[in-house]
Amino acid sequence: MDRPIPPTVKMPTGVEVHGGSLRIWFMYRGHRCRESLGVPPTKANIKKASQQRSHITYLIRTGAFDYGEAFPESPNLARFGVNSATITVSQLAQRWLRYKALDISNNTHARYTSMLKTIVNYMGPDRFCSDLRQQDFAELRSQLLDAPQNHTNRAKSGRTVRTVNTYLTIARQMFEFALSNDIVESRFWESVKQLKKTRSKPEPLSTDEFGRLLAACLHPQDANLITVAVYTGLRHGELISLAWEDIDLTRRELKVSRNLASIGEFVQPKTESGERVIKLLSPAVEALQAQQAITKLYPSNAINVVLREKRRIRIDHCTFVFNPLVTARGEYEKPHYSNTSLEDKWTRICKRAGIKRRPPYQTRHTFACWMLSNGANPAYIAGQMGHSTAQMVFNVYGDWIPENDANQVAMLEASLKKSAPHMPHKKTRNA
Length: 431
Fold this sequence. Notes:
Elements: E1 15-18, E2 21-28, E3 31-36, H1 43-62, H2 67-70, H3 76-79, H4 89-100, H5 106-123, H6 134-146, E4 148-149, E5 156-157, H7 161-180, H8 207-215, H9 220-232, H10 236-241, E6 247-248, E7 253-256, E8 259-260, E9 266-267, E10 276-279, H11 282-295, E11 301-306, E12 313-318, H12 339-353, H13 362-373, H14 378-385, H15 391-397, H16 405-419
Parallel strand pairs: 9-11
Antiparallel strand pairs: 1-2, 2-3, 4-5, 6-7, 7-10, 8-9, 11-12
């Protein structure tokens, strides 16, 4: 671990400690400028600070330094007369992303970067933000919905309404930042509404489709993986991250403490309610017992898990339950699946089984729908799935909650007969 350096250590030129954090100084337009970096004075941070200062002085010498882009929140901007009216859409996106960096995970940062690239290209990277109007934001919405996506080998015609609304939410946040920093003068985006969307319903597997999927698996590990996914409701990043160290088959419990993000790093579950203990149903127990013979004796791996607190990690020792090396033919080196490789495997199995192709996330929907259809308590299901309340279960899976008022009344009657005190009978007078 990189610890703060002793106060006697000599600092590189232009790097100093102020208020417990590193800051750099440099000469710009005849003035000595100081900028706090907001990081502790560790050896690694000092090296990075020195490199950052060297880069800034190089940009100043070559005339390419943009003070507002390098330090968008700096009070020095007013001193040098940085004109907010000349800030471009591209520059705004870079500033906003730096502003958000400490508040979001690495995975979210990568997702925002990708979406902002599209937003900037559609709005015009060199357009001045001060020139943008309502029509420009409305045009962004239209382009996001209709313009072909040619940046992948699976070119699509436009985007889904849900995706478009996500892009618009990010764009609105960026322009709110611009408004609060006097880069734009009005909320020109405010009257451009989110697109209306019909809620898509879950498409759970039928019991027949589930049986056909298992029959289509070419290796027992694949059948065990699908069974565990369906009977636990795990997210697929959680399923990939599952280790034997997390499982107690004697107690029939499974602990969820990590997730594999789309950028390939292990992280804590998104929310605290996501860290949970799942009570295993018999089919999941049987699948895991069968899987023990396949992967439990594989070596343990030390992995970094990125924590919610910024710049903190923990090290987990994991013997992964589902290991692609079991069936790999030399082309796979990691002891765990990636999100992409798991989705590809799912697609191939669906094709062999001859069933409608669904996203692999439908195994999670299958768990919820099957449990509800069999009378499970929505609050219990919410806890098993990692939701903080049962509201999500009611919202998404309401059609699978049976109308069992009569059964509930019968259950209450039976329970009350056993536990409620008997009311004394009123004596009647003899006539």
